[in-house]
Automatic annotation (TrEMBL):
Originating organism: Winogradskyella aurantia
GO biological process, alphabetically ordered: L-tryptophan biosynthetic process
A Pfam family matched in the record: IGPS
Top-level lineage group: Bacteria
Name of this chain's protein: indole-3-glycerol-phosphate synthase
Enzyme class per UniProt: lyase
CDD domains, per the entry: IGPS
EC identifiers of the protein: 4.1.1.48
Taxonomy of the source species: Bacteria, Pseudomonadati, Bacteroidota, Flavobacteriia, Flavobacteriales
Ranges for domain Indole-3-glycerol phosphate synthase: 4-252
Reaction(s) catalysed (UniProt annotation): 1-(2-carboxyphenylamino)-1-deoxy-D-ribulose 5-phosphate + H(+) = (1S,2R)-1-C-(indol-3-yl)glycerol 3-phosphate + CO2 + H2O
Length: 261
């Protein structure tokens, strides 16, 4: 069994358990549930750099990336660096993240926050809104077309932006629908962990221009970004390249400064 299948099985158990412990109505009463959101896709459209910087402690492919950095320091650092948004892993088992990380980031910066999670149930979308997320990720590889439609429409009704992630043409074909704001191409195959920026380049021509195009994973240089921009990419999701340093905010500052030159 590949790692993605395993993650989804565990996630199903986790969500079923949580549903029993915390009824959805509890989330609907939290203050952020009614609060307004900041649009990540609009920020990206208006930006010349388009960096979405991620907070990621570990991953199944790399194990520990950074177990010292505090999410509040990183949120403040990323905001100062001038990123367009911050992506926060909330999966605990495989990525060492938590919903508390997102809440903490929300308290320390005004950046649009993307909840990076393996969403398989509408419950997680209500939860995302309630903890202060501005955008959610939907992964085509683990969802049916019907789920993508239902989940993205629910997110839109809550004013959350939707980033739909694909890895191949088949996933892209089943996913294109008006309730999505951003289409992300993951350069990392979540089943094998192979990384290639060519994935973004080949799939770009199949993505209609009305979606904000984002290239995700394995981006570690200015040259990589410059090579992707001609393919229409407006957003670049970067995790490890910043998180592997002692000071991710500083790494993002240097990176963005250089990108602007
Ligand atoms: O650390 P990287 O290679 O810069 O990648 C960041 C981000 O794209 C990656 O964490 C990611 C992209 N899609 C995902 C889906 C689930 C978990 C993680 C991800």
């Amino acid at each position: 069994m590949n790692i993605l299948d395993k993650i989804v099985i565990d996630k199903r158990k986790e969500v079923n358990l949580k549903k029993e412990l915390i009824p959805i109505e509890t989330y609907e009463q939290l203050p952020y549930f009614e609060a307004s959101t900041t649009s990540l896709s609009k920020r990206l459209q208006a930006s010349t750099t388009g960096i979405i910087a991620e907070f990621k402690r570990k991953s199944p492919s790399k194990s520990i990336i950074n177990d010292k950095a505090l999410v509040e320091d990183v949120a403040i650092g990323y905001e100062k660096a001038g990123v367009c948004g911050m992506s926060i892993l909330t999966d605990e088992v495989y990525f060492g993240g938590s919903m508390d990380d997102l809440i903490t980031a929300k308290e320390h910066c005004r950046l649009p926050l993307l909840r990076k999670e393996f969403i398989i149930d509408e419950y997680q979308i209500i939860e995302a809104k309630a903890i202060g997320a501005d955008a959610i990720l939907l992964i085509a590889a683990i969802l049916t077309k019907t789920q993508i439609k239902q989940f993205s429409e629910l997110a839109k009704s809550l004013n959350l932006d939707v980033l739909l992630e694909v890895h191949n043409a088949e996933e892209l074909h089943k996913s294109i629908m008006p309730s999505l704001d951003m289409l992300g191409v993951n350069n990392r195959d979540l089943k094998t962990f192979d990384v290639s920026l060519e994935t973004s380049k080949t799939l770009s021509q199949l993505i209609p221009d009305d979606f904000v195009k984002i290239s995700e994973s394995g981006i570690s240089s200015i040259d990589a970004i410059k090579s992707l921009q001609p393919y229409g990419y407006k957003g670049f999701l970067i995790g490890e390249n910043f998180m592997k340093t002692d000071n991710p905010g500083k790494a993002a500052t240097t990176f963005i400064k250089e990108l602007k030159e």
